[in-house]
Design brief:
The chain is an all-alpha fold. The chain has 3 helices and no strands. The longest helix is centred in the N-terminal third of the chain and has 22 residues.
C-alpha cells in the first residue's frame, strides 16, 4: 500500500466518523422554536418542520460563518 492509498483510507475513515457524528446529532426529532433565538423574528413553518431549528435563515447563516471562521466547520 503506497502513501496515496494510505491517505485515501484515512480520508475515508475521517469522513465516515464525521457522518456518524452528524447523524448522531440529528435534530429531526427535536421541537423547533417558533421565533429565532437571536433576533426573535418568526421562523417559517416549513423551516420549523425540519425539527430542532432555533434560528431564522439569516441568523443561521451568520452562525455558520462564525463557526467556519473559528475553524469548527
Amino acid at each position: 500500500m503506497d502513501e496515496l492509498d494510505k491517505a485515501n483510507k484515512l480520508i475515508e475513515q475521517a469522513l465516515s466518523i464525521s457522518l456518524a457524528h452528524q447523524h448522531a446529532k440529528s435534530t429531526a426529532d427535536q421541537v423547533s422554536l417558533a421565533q429565532c433565538k437571536d433576533c426573535n423574528i418568526d421562523i417559517h413553518l416549513q423551516r420549523q418542520a425540519l425539527g430542532g431549528i432555533t434560528r431564522c435563515v439569516e441568523c443561521q447563516g451568520y452562525a455558520n460563518q462564525e463557526r467556519h471562521l473559528k475553524g469548527f466547520v
